[in-house]
Write a structure and sequence with these properties.
about 350 residues; alpha+beta; Aminopeptidase; Alpha-Beta Plaits; five-stranded mixed beta sheet; five-stranded antiparallel beta sheet; 7 helices; about 20% helix; elongated
Length: about 350
């Protein structure tokens, strides 16, 4: 974050600061309409480092492609965002806008950074560009996500006489098998645009006083991806119908972990995202994509994941310009002498 902040300062941003959570913010302009460029610059862990072909923290460049932890998800979006903002300022195209770059923590805080930016910092953008990698396609929606905590209680005893106790792990096994069957069932009822929901067990742990004692608690963590018809109530009711569910505590937990600055923003671990309609703003994005030489206009897809920053994303996705661009063609980039403001900039 220090490097990103220093570069924005060098590029002449009007303001560079960190928010309460510790995310980096850069601002250009002070106009009435607010456009925010969102890029998370943290990563998940490396899992088994021996499975990497190179040091993931050093990376490499091969055939013009950068490989490394976070190269695609999504540090790659930060440089073009901040340089584009600097170019807009230099060309005088940002006079009526407030432009923000938002370099945030997403992987390690369940994506609540955007939520906190809106609710705590009071920054409410009219439009948001999210830098998640899309294989150079324009994405306009994705499924929601719910995390679910499931806890089975038992009774501990010495492992030499397990019949004297009540093994919590054994109680959980039929429920886990039910989760696997439920995932297959979800495939049979997809949403026309977002596809089918999904569910899987992502973590399991037991509590035992000793390795020679029967566990008295078994905890599961579930990742549930949902389409719009699958509400929180639907998700929980499906789980409560699984084998042995009546023996468990099933809840959607709260995220209340402090950031590195000590900031806490409590939020339920659930989000619902969708953007079904092809609005004028989407058509503008596709027109710009064509003019940049990225081929014809394919169907606008959706992502397969979910990022729980719903207030920020909802603010971005709910707006549109109310106009469609003319379908004039630009000359090839190498032969184009027109300034950057012609003809695409009116639609940004």
């Amino acid at each position: 974050m220090d490097a990103v902040g220093a570069r924005m300062t060098d590029l002449g941003f009007d303001e560079v600061r960190r928010d309460a959570m510790g995310n980096i913010l850069g601002r250009i302009g002070n106009g009435p309409r607010v456009l925010l460029y969102d890029s998370h610059i943290d990563t998940v862990g490396v899992a088994d480092a021996s499975q990497w072909q190179w040091d993931p923290f050093e990376g490499k460049i091969e055939d013009g492609i950068i490989y490394g932890l976070g190269a695609g998800d999504e540090k790659c979006s930060t440089p073009p965002m901040i340089y584009a903002m600097a170019a807009l300022k230099k060309l005088g195209l940002a006079r009526d806008w407030t432009l923000y770059y938002f370099g945030n923590m997403e992987e390690w805080c369940d994506g609540i950074s955007g939520n906190a930016l809106v609710e705590h910092e009071g920054i409410r953008p009219d439009f948001v560009v999210i830098g998640e990698s899309t294989n150079m396609e324009i994405y306009r929606g994705h499924r929601g996500r719910t995390e679910v905590s499931v806890t089975f209680k038992g009774r501990s005893c010495h492992a030499s006489a397990p019949e004297r106790g009540d093994n919590a792990l054994y109680k959980a096994i039929p429920f886990i098998q039910g989760i696997e069957r439920l995932h297959q069932e979800l495939k049979t009822r997809p949403d026309p645009f977002l596809g089918a929901g999904s569910i899987t067990v992502t973590s399991i742990s037991t509590h035992s006083v000793s390795l020679n004692a029967v566990p008295d608690e078994c905890s599961l963590y579930l990742d549930r991806r949902m389409h719009p018809a699958e509400t929180k109530e639907v998700v929980l009711n499906e789980l409560r119908a699984l084998p042995n569910a009546h023996l468990a505590e099933i809840i959607v937990p709260m995220y209340e972990v402090p950031s590195y600055t000590g900031f806490v923003f409590p939020v339920e671990k659930m989000s619902i995202h969708t953007y079904r309609q092809v609005r004028p703003l989407s058509r503008v994005a596709m027109a710009v994509r064509r003019r940049l030489g990225n081929g014809s206009s394919p169907p606008m897809p959706r992502t397969g994941w979910a990022r729980p920053v719903s207030p920020l994303s909802a603010s971005a996705l709910a707006r549109n310009t109310g106009r469609t661009p003319p379908l004039t063609r630009c000359p090839p980039p190498k032969s184009c002498n027109a300034p950057i403001s012609t003809p695409c900039s009116p639609y940004f």
